[in-house]
């Protein structure tokens, strides 16, 4: 639906895909007392906290991993539609290792724990779509 982090401020697309979800294996979710639709914060090994983000319990992921779609969790206040919807994987990536041959960054050295959270109270997308045209262009 969305293209990288470029389309989250488009209210038409956000109506179809309004926030990302954190995927977690069904058994791990059950151990943590979580179910589909619950909200959590993700806290990495350095104490960086992101979210809240909705839980998607599924067996389509390994038990020792979580998955998050890239491009959500924007902090810029002028991105009025996307502001604070979901969690940002970028903010959680505080450590990396560089490959000595290619120079590519290995970002799979970051770990998170999940903390229960309340459902966020955000303005409806419909109310944001009704803003004056001049304000939407900002």
What's the CATH first level? Mainly Beta
Which structural class matches the secondary elements? alpha+beta
Computed over alpha carbons, the radius of gyration is 16 Å
- The gross shape turns out to be globular
Question: What does this protein structure show overall?
Answer:
With about 140 residues, the chain is of the alpha+beta class. The protein has a single domain, classed as Barwin-like endoglucanases (Beta Barrel). About 20% of the residues lie in helices and about 25% in strands. It has 5 helices and 7 strands, in the order αβαβββαβββαα. It has helices spanning about 10-15, 25-30, 90, 125-130, 135; strands at about 20-25, 40-45, 50-60, 65-70, 95-100, 105, 110-115. The strands form 2 sheets. The protein has a 5-stranded mixed sheet with strand order 4-1-3-2-7. The longest helix has 6 residues, at about 10-15. The chain is globular, with a radius of gyration of 16 Å. The two termini are about 25 Å apart. The model has no long low-confidence stretch (mean pLDDT about 85).
Which labels suit this protein?
138 residues, alpha+beta, five-stranded mixed beta sheet, two-stranded antiparallel sheet
Question: Brief description of this entry?
Answer:
By secondary structure, this protein is of the alpha+beta class.
SSE arrangement:
Blueprint: H1 11-16, E1 21-25, H2 26-31, E2 39-44, E3 49-58, E4 66-68, H3 89-92, E5 97-98, E6 105-106, E7 112-117, H4 125-129, H5 133-136
Parallel strand pairs: 1-3
Antiparallel strand pairs: 1-4, 2-3, 2-7, 5-6
């Amino acid at each position: 639906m969305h293209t990288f982090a470029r389309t989250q401020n488009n209210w038409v697309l956000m109506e179809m895909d309004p926030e990302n979800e954190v995927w977690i294996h069904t058994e791990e979710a059950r151990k943590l007392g979580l179910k589909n639709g619950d909200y959590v914060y993700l806290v990495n090994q350095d104490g960086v906290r992101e979210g809240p983000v909705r839980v998607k319990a599924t067996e389509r992921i390994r038990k020792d991993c979580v998955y998050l779609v890239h491009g959500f969790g924007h902090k810029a206040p002028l991105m009025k539609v996307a502001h604070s919807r979901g969690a940002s994987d970028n903010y959680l990536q505080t450590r990396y290792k560089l490959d000595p041959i290619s120079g590519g960054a290995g970002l799979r050295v970051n770990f998170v724990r999940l903390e229960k959270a309340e459902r966020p109270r955000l303005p409806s997308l419909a109310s944001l779509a009704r803003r004056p045209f001049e304000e939407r262009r900002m």
